[in-house]
Amino acid sequence: DYRRSFPSGCPFSASVQDPGLHVWRVEKLKPVPVVRENQGVFFSSGDFYLLLYNGPEEVSHLHLWIGQQSSWHEQGAYAVLAVHLNTLLGERPVQHREVQGSESNLFMSYFPQGLKYQEGDVESAFHKTSSVAPAAVKKLYQWALSWDSFHTGDCFILDLGQNIFAWCGGKSNILERNKARDLALAVRDSERQGKAQVEIVTDGEEPDEMIQVLGPKPSLKEGNPEEDLTADQTNAQATALYKVSHATGQMNLTKVTDSSPFAPELLMSDDCFVLDSGSQMRRSGRQFCSRAVSETPIFKQFFKDWK
After folding, report:
1. Is 113 inside a domain boundary?
2. The most confident of 33-42, 96-105, 245-254, by mean pLDDT
3. Which contiguous run of DSSP H or E holds residue 23?
4. Is residue 231 over pLDDT 90?
5. What's the helix, strand, coil split of the chain in %, to 5?
6. Do residues 290 and 222 both lie within one domain?
7. Using CA of residue 199, residue 204, residue 205, residue 211, what is the dihedral sign?
8. Are 166 and 200 in contact (CB under 8 A)?
9. Torsion over CA of 201, 179, 215 and 132, rounded to 10 degrees?
């Protein structure tokens, strides 16, 4: 009996009457308020969320958000919680059911910066990340996890999840170093909610964490502007933008254009797009659309004049 979970009565405070957005994460069948700065971040490992929006003229909307890995038995708790909210609000909320990856336009309108899905649990508060994303300065490309990918003329970003290292070669210039720092900070803020540590590493002063991942540091090649230009041209030609369509009843990928940088105007909010950077094999459009919830710095750098 889910009602026994609330022996002291209503699990909500009178603040649910306040206008605006209220978000709760359902933990052990009980609602836990989500602080404002974390609203829009959803843990998908077996979680449910309740969202209440109190608009003007006493119009309210109550949403149940269901994570892809959620178990159905917890929906019984939602039914009881919804009864409590309805009672507090005089039976006025309109109820909606939202499934991860298929949220309604109304639900999305509450989060103008987009949604972020996180794996794991609330204690970890980190995205599951790949082990490395070294980078050139003008564009961020993924390279092999090896010292062979480094050279002294550029800057590289080593992303280890909780620690992000911006390594600056001894012959890199101040503009390149500043750009590497800005990109590392952008990854921290947009993909780790500001909870990762960013460290600027000078060539020759590598911390133990880098050595543990990359191995002993050898003598590095110098690199040159011609190699940078060749890398930019090669990676640009390997990049393509696709539009996902199901107008025929089947999911189809149609190439919009190839060779970046792309014009931002090609992206339309009513459609779904796949950006193939050449570093990964393309999967189904549906799989990509379910994960593309906000633009990361790495995504934006494939477009010119992104606002």
Report:
1. yes
2. 33-42
3. strand 20-27
4. no
5. 30, 25, 45
6. no
7. positive
8. yes
9. 130
The kind and range of the H/E element at 33 are: strand 30-33
pLDDT in tens, 38-94: 888 887 655 789 999 998 877 899 998 887 766 655 556 667 788 888 888 888 888
For the segment 208-233, the average pLDDT, to the nearest whole number, is: 76
Considering the entire predicted model, what is its pTM?
A: 0.41
- Pick the closest to residue 162 from 189, 198, 210 (CA basis): 198
**If pLDDT is split at 50, 70 and 90, which confidence band does 212 have?**
very high
Asked if residues 126 and 162 have their Cβ atoms less than 8 Å apart, the reply is yes
The pLDDT assigned to 8 comes to 52
Q: Which domain holds residue 47?
A: 2-118
Q: Which of 118, 135, 163 is the last residue of a domain?
A: 118
CB of 65 within 8 A of CB of 42?
yes
Same domain, 220 and 246: no
196-200 long-range contacts (CB < 8 A, ≥24 apart) are 196/126, 196/161, 196/162, 196/163, 196/164, 197/162, 197/163, 197/164, 198/164, 198/165, 198/166, 199/163, 199/164, 199/165, 199/166, 200/166, 200/168
